[in-house]
Write a structure and sequence with these properties.
By secondary structure, the protein is mainly β. It has a single domain, classed as Jelly Rolls (Sandwich). The chain is globular, with a radius of gyration of 17 Å.
């Protein structure tokens, strides 16, 4: 998987009928007026130190609109067909700018409302500044979705068990951690996971600088239109 930012522009397919989602998305937004919304394929804005992306990048995508009350309270309405392949990764990101070795803490809290149908995962996507290493943390997932690469077994850190996958998409290494039980709210201690990858497994150098910590919904299908809401999100580092 390439970064859900500019690196994906070159190989993305323009999603059809984006305007269709605009009217429906307004009805799906919260009661208070959103401070920002977009149905553009690459719609983005920065609010409260977080950058939001609509990020419709996959082949055969349908309609999708994103809205935000802030950088940490936002959601999307998406209507993607029941076909294979990831269609989009609407997300909110915060930039860290510290090496793994130089970090003393990197944590995040999340609270989401996700549909019971469709195919998707709710995930963190964490990148080094050179986009050579991608770490995904799936906190919940539904439908026909799966991680890239081969299983490396399970890992338990701070009371949470993850199934670990390691792969490469041709552009970068990908480390995926799938939570053993679905969660719609909680706290993730990210730094011990990065240290395990770098120091315990030696899969990437601990001198790598962590850039973007993204959180969002990797959507494969949401036929008929589904709502995905981030009620609250925080990313903190030191």
């Amino acid at each position: 998987m390439a970064p859900r930012t500019t690196l994906r522009l070159a190989r993305a397919v323009v999603a059809p009928a984006l305007a269709l989602g605009a009217t429906i998305a307004l009805a799906s937004a919260p009661a208070q007026a959103a401070v920002w919304s977009s149905c553009d394929q690459w719609g983005s804005t920065t609010l409260n130190g977080y950058t939001l992306y609509n990020d419709i990048w996959g082949s055969g995508a349908g309609s999708q609109c994103i809205w935000a009350n802030s950088g940490t309270s936002w959601g999307v309405w998406a209507n993607h067909p029941d076909t294979g392949g990831i269609k989009s990764y609407p997300n909110s990101k915060k930039y860290v700018g510290r090496t793994i070795a130089g970090l003393s803490s990197l944590t995040s809290t999340y609270n989401v409302t996700v549909p019971s149908s469709g195919a998707y995962n709710t995930s963190y996507d964490i990148w080094d500044t050179g986009y050579a290493y991608e770490t995904m943390l799936w906190v919940n997932y539904n439908g026909a979705v799966g991680a890239l690469g081969t299983s490396q077994g399970s890992l338990t850190l701070n009371g949470t068990t993850w199934t670990v996958y390691k792969g490469n998409n041709g552009a970068n290494d990908v480390f995926s951690f799938l939570r053993s039980s679905d969660s719609t709210s909680g706290t993730v201690d990210i730094l011990p996971i990065l240290r395990w990858i770098a120091n315990t497994k030696g899969w990437m150098p601990n001198t790598k600088t962590i850039g973007d910590v993204q959180f969002g919904f990797e959507i494969t299908s949401s036929s008929g239109g589904l709502d995905f809401v981030t009620n609250n999100l925080t990313v903190s580092s030191s």
